[in-house]
Amino acid sequence: MNQEPHSPASCRLCGAGLRHTFTDLGLSPPCEAYVPADRLGRPELFYPLHVFVCEQCLLVQLPEHVSPQEIFTEYAYFSSYSDSWLAHAKTYAVRMVERFKLGPEALVELASNDGYLLQYFQEQRIPVLGVEPAANVAKVAAQKGIPTRVEFFSRECAAAMVREGTRADLIAANNVFAHVPDIRSFTAGMKLLLKPGGVITIEVPHLIRLMEGNQFDTSYHEHFSYWSFMAAKRMLEDFGPTVFDVDELTTHGGSMRMYARHAEDTSCPVSERVQDLLRREEEAGFGRLQTYFSFNEKVRRTKRGILAFFIKAKRAGKSVAGYGAPGKGNTLLNYCGIRTDFLDYTVDRNPYKQGKFLPGTRIPIYPPEKLRETCPDYVFILPWKLNDEIRQQLAYVRDWGGRLVVPIPELEVLE
């Protein structure tokens, strides 16, 4: 059944009751709540990971079970530990400066993390300001010389920034839109902060690619919403600026970068790509509620395939280690019930995570050198969206006859 008549949640955009399941991944702890060794004897809180689709506005969303303050005040995700993500950020910076003829004007990035993006604008002598709620991550940006405001962005935050004299020629909201529960206040804040003639860019995973690629592990408690282009465009133009262009990207399993401006600004005409993507989404059925109902069973089939691999490997006496400790990996492992009886350990390049344990499953996290020490038969790639980068990093696994395993969209053991 797709209807959930007893769900108390309401749509964060239109207020309609959320009655229809997109996917139900059971109970899971917050995906970035890594467990220190001295807390292994203490309990963890598990929350529903039940994603709904609104029957009125068709926004796919997760009700707010965990507050943003609890998730983001102390955060374990640092963007700078992915080489391919840094390359993506540098390319973005160069293109934005060229396309919008940016000079010594103000650039503001929302959810600026450890300064991974703003550093490339600084290299081009463009003044920058980051807004980042996680104090531990913002501290790293400040150490790089990147001015950072430690705060959750909202309409009220934007109003305070404007009173202080800050306005932006370019607002970068890259991979933050899905993380915002009060998306209306966030969008209104961007409009308020944007100078006349300024541009907003928003990067967000694309719901079409999520469904096509069976990317259920993108669902976790810090991702409050999952966007089609038609839903995002409608929301932006209802509560903020006008969308005038869109790029389709390969990052995060398939994303879109939306460009927006003040409605009265005619210097950026609406691109044909906007209507083209809207048409393709309509033809794919994303304007109909029924389209969203097929995903849940697809996810269940993938779970059975992942468990079948682990059961077969363990019955054959094979060892399996993980690579990476991303939030999406914790969704996958908790949903599938994979603990140290299946996955011996995982490794991660981020020192912040090393020596800790994955939330829920309590799988230990080591530095990457651990793989060479133990020579596992299989290495299970948890941040599979960085598959190409990681395959190059792990080419040495073949030296002892080990093989790499990619779980999504369907489990594949690489030759």
UniProtKB/TrEMBL annotation:
For this entry, list what GO says about its biological process: methylation
Q: Cross-referenced SUPFAM superfamilies, in alphabetical order? A: S-adenosyl-L-methionine-dependent methyltransferases (SSF53335)
Recorded superkingdom: Bacteria
The yes or no answer to whether the keyword Acyltransferase is present is: no
Q: Does the keyword Ion transport apply?
A: no
Q: What keywords tag this UniProt record?
A: Methyltransferase, Transferase
- Ranges for domain C-methyltransferase come to 251-409
GO molecular function list: methyltransferase activity
This chain's protein is named Class I SAM-dependent methyltransferase
Protein source organism: Ramlibacter rhizophilus
